[in-house]
Specification:
Elements: H1 3-16, H2 18-51, H3 60-68, H4 71-107, H5 115-132, H6 138-151, H7 159-178, H8 182-189, H9 193-206, H10 208-221, H11 224-246, H12 252-293
Helix pairs in contact: 1-12, 2-4, 2-6, 2-11, 2-12, 3-4, 4-5, 4-8, 4-12, 5-8, 6-7, 8-9, 11-12
């Protein structure tokens, strides 16, 4: 299949298969909520550190909640937040295994079912692969950089670790590109994490032109990264702005409750859109992996000694 045929097939599959979109929506919603939490926390740190010149502790948010809320309510909210963060970090790996497996079944004309089994069976190896390239995530790098600024030596001594962090981010993204098919190899061919990475690197190096052209098409068609950043910046701003505006007419508790509900509705609506993009992009890579895997390896000259 040509790259254009792969993209057309992936989009048709995304619109057709409801199970794929359900998993994609759940994953997109939890990822968006996690990114909003990180943005709010880092924005608060930036304001206190840069504007007011204060350095906050690692658990400053929790300490603030304990100060302004009754102790029982504060601890309940803290436990809920930490539980949600744990779920938001782990669930996308479950969802990815289900999306890849269901997309592969749809492409090979099998019955599209068994998403939960696919998610549970492949979660751990997919998680291992993801953690090997954890420094490739921009949110992870921002969080680590924030911790370095807060608790590091300061001054010129801080430039070296921040520079190394940037270098590791670049290297992780390069390696992550060559391991782009590792998750598909884990789900479809039941390979271990390191064997899957090796197979992915071999496929991408062997068919680099095909993969790069497909990547360019995806970049042009899918602008999820830019839209995601806009939404993550927009939702907290609308919540805070609505809350401040309504305080002129209503009590602060009611005002910020309305703002939070509005923000939650926007997050759900944005996640519904992101579900299509998430499933579409993952389905493109799944179909590409299946098609490239059918081709003969470039380092194999004959199938058996008898062919010589």
């Amino acid at each position: 299949m040509t790259p254009r045929e792969i993209i057309a097939k992936a989009w048709a599959m995304t619109k057709k298969e409801k199970q794929l979109r359900r998993w994609g929506f759940s994953s997109a919603l939890l990822e968006t909520l996690l990114n909003i939490k990180l943005l709010v926390y880092q924005s608060w740190f930036f304001y206190l550190y840069v504007i007011k010149g204060e350095t906050i502790s690692f658990f400053a948010m929790e300490e603030l909640l304990l100060e302004i809320m009754p102790e029982a309510a504060a601890w309940t909210l803290i436990i809920i937040i930490f539980s949600m963060v744990a779920i938001e970090l782990v669930f996308p790996h479950f969802a990815k295994g289900a999306i890849i497996g269901l997309a592969a079944k749809s492409h090979t004309k099998q019955e599209v079912k068994g998403g939960l089994i696919l998610a549970l069976y492949n979660c751990v190896p997919i998680f291992i692969v993801h953690e090997l390239f954890v420094l490739g995530g921009i949110s992870t790098v921002i969080t680590i950089g924030s911790l370095m600024i807060r608790y590091g030596p300061g001054g010129d001594f801080l430039l070296l670790p921040l520079g190394l962090l940037g270098l590791f981010w670049v290297l992780s993204n390069i390696l992550q590109f060559f391991a782009a098919f590792a998750e598909e190899a884990i789900v479809i061919h039941k390979l271990g994490p390191f064997a899957a990475i090796g197979k992915s690197m071999k496929l991408i190096i062997s068919h680099l032109g095909h993969v790069v052209f497909l990547l360019i098409l995806l970049f042009v068609i899918s602008l999820r990264i830019i839209i995601n950043i806009v939404m993550i910046l927009l939702v907290p701003g609308i919540v805070i702005g609505t809350g401040l505006l309504l305080t002129k007419f209503l009590s602060p508790a009611v005002s910020y409750s309305i703002g939070s509900i509005l923000g939650l509705i926007m997050t759900v609506a944005a996640s519904y859109f992101f579900a299509y993009v998430t499933v579409f992009k993952q389905t493109v890579w799944t179909i590409t992996y299946l098609e490239l895997s059918r081709l003969k390896d470039l380092d194999v000259i004959t199938d058996s000694p008898e062919d010589l």
